[in-house]
Amino acid sequence: MGSHEKSGRWYVKKDDKVQGPFPNQLIASYLILGRMTLDTEVSQDQEHWVAVKEYRALVPEVVLNAHTKNGAKALKLARIREDERISLAANPDESATERRIDEDQVIKLHRQLRDDILNRYKTQPELNTQKIAIGMVIIVVVVIAYVFIRPASELPGADCSALPAAGVNWSSCNKQGQNLAGQDLTGAIFKAAHLNGVDFTRSQLSGADFSYANLFQAELAQSKLTNALFTGANLRKANLQGADLRGADLSYSELEGARLDGALLAGARFDNAIWLNGEQCLPESIGACLLPK
Fold first, then answer.
1. What's phi and psi for 63, nearest 5 deg?
2. 8 Å CB contact between 57 and 5
3. Distance of CA 94 to the CA centre of its chain
4. Rounded to the nearest 5 degrees, what angle is found at the Cα of 148, between the Cα atoms of 208 and 112?
5. What is the pTM assigned to this prediction?
6. pLDDT tens for residues 9-56?
7. C-alpha distances in angstroms, 244 versus 39, 192, 212, 217?
8. Residue 272 lies inside a defined structural domain of this protein
9. Which helix (DSSP H) or strand (DSSP E) does residue 79 occupy?
10. Can you give the CATH number for the domain in which 278 is found?
11. Is 176 found in the same domain as 283?
12. Domain boundary residue among 40, 69, 101?
């Protein structure tokens, strides 16, 4: 990003009318909400006008990818999130709970994207398991990148600098490769967090929320994960040997290549999860993955 882009004071020209100056964040917000297009002209000196698309640092990825089928869906959700953020800023007394997008919408998007790939496989059986698995990983990346588009600092209660403790909120935080073995993280929130390679061995994680988190190759052996949420999480090649997953929700999670030897699975949900062998679990898979015959 150039030095003039960092200053974040932009004038916008629409229908020969000049407005501004606006900060970088507001330009990005207007692009997401459709109040500006990629061809809208911007300037910092009101003399040299250039289409905003020429300043790639100002344009959110979700806008750049809106021309694709999945990108259009992601942009729709991003607009809902941005509208929610602006409304809360304008009405600080309004309950965040009332304004929060229903989590079911996230699951529906995940299901819709996954079904697109699986339906394609049914009509084009030459697609192999590896290609399907890659597609599923892309789905998780899309959901994490766009549904949780706001940085962690803007997520209510998220604090990436907080020390590990029960109830800590590390939503969207990057904790890759950290050693958290033996920690008490009961009820912690890790929504869409980057946790690949993290060592959670023998940690207390009951009721923790790992929705859409990246736990690729994470160490969770002998950890207590009762009633934890793993909706849409990436658990590929994760070590869950001896873990207590009773009552956990692993719906739509990715488990290909994971190790579950000796894990306690009573009451655990695996609806539509991708199982250890790359196959999709049937709905109502509780306590075990029910595979198509």
1. -80, -40
2. yes
3. 25
4. 95
5. 0.54
6. 889 998 788 988 888 888 888 898 888 899 999 999 888 899 999 988
7. 54, 22, 20, 18
8. yes
9. helix 69-90
10. 2.160.20.80
11. yes
12. 101
Distances in Å between the Cα of 155 and the Cα atoms of 24, 75, 81, 99, 169 are: 19, 19, 11, 13, 9
Three-state DSSP at 13 gives strand
> Residue 163 contacts by C-beta under 8 Å, 6 or more apart in sequence?
none
Q: Which two tokens mark 290?
A: 């029910």
Q: Per the structure block, which two tokens stand in for 76?
A: 């729709």
Residues 147/180, Cβ–Cβ less than 8 Å: no
Distance (Å, whole) CA 205 – CA 112 = 30
Q: Beta partners for 254?
A: 234, 274
Between CA 266 and CA 226 the distance in angstroms is 10
Number of domains in the chain: 2
State both tokens at 92: 């600080």
Size (the chain), residues? 293
